[in-house]
Amino acid sequence: MPRISTSSGEDLTMPLITAFNPGQSPPPVKIPILMFMPPIFDILYFIIITRQDLTLERRNRMKLTRDELLKVISSPKYIPATLTELAKKLKIRDKKERQELRSILKELVETGRVIKDSRSRYIIPGENITTGNIRFSRKGLGAIVFTGEGEQIYIGGEDTGFALDGDKVLVEKSGRFRDIARGRIIKILKRKREKIVGTFITKGLFAFVIPDDTRIKFDFY
């Protein structure tokens, strides 16, 4: 009968069962259990370590804050990325964590700290780009943007876009107007008004509203 032994020389061979008296205990039988235990321990150890690593990685991802996200986007090595590309870069796979990332990006865009370009990529505004609230003249021909830093930026009537009085806007500065900066509206970040009061007019098959507020320079069709 072949012998089975461990590397240390321990005999694991199962001896043949021999006859014994009914009043005696049967002889001990050696079963080579140890031959199969190490692989099981290795698998269990691998599973435990892997779960711990995944849990730690998930906790680290959930620590993402607005400041940390800004640090990533403002890094010199950062390449303009979409929401999906940012989630992949930050190793975010969970649906809830992805939604949290979306919410943070939305808030950063609304406050003007981050810009979402025409290709849905997120970038940091340049040196000549700032945010503020726009106020139109009574004739609606020009406007002034008041920034959070107390700066005033003149916006010509042709550069106001579809901004309405009181809107929070993103402004690109481009030169001077008299003794203050001049700029143009490049994006509306947040509307101040949800309703416009005006006069409803119909002409044939067309209808439109002329706002009562003269600071609004266009009609609504």
UniProtKB/TrEMBL annotation:
Coiled coil ranges: none
Keyword Membrane included in the entry's annotation: yes
Entry keyword Nucleotide-binding: no
Location of the Ribonuclease B N-terminal OB domain: 132-188
Transmembrane portions of the chain: 31-49
Record key words, sorted: Exonuclease, Hydrolase, Membrane, Nuclease, Transmembrane, Transmembrane helix
Gene Ontology MF terms: exonuclease activity
Name of the protein in its database record: Ribonuclease B N-terminal OB domain-containing protein
Organism this protein belongs to: Kosmotoga arenicorallina
Lineage: Bacteria, Thermotogati, Thermotogota, Thermotogae, Kosmotogales
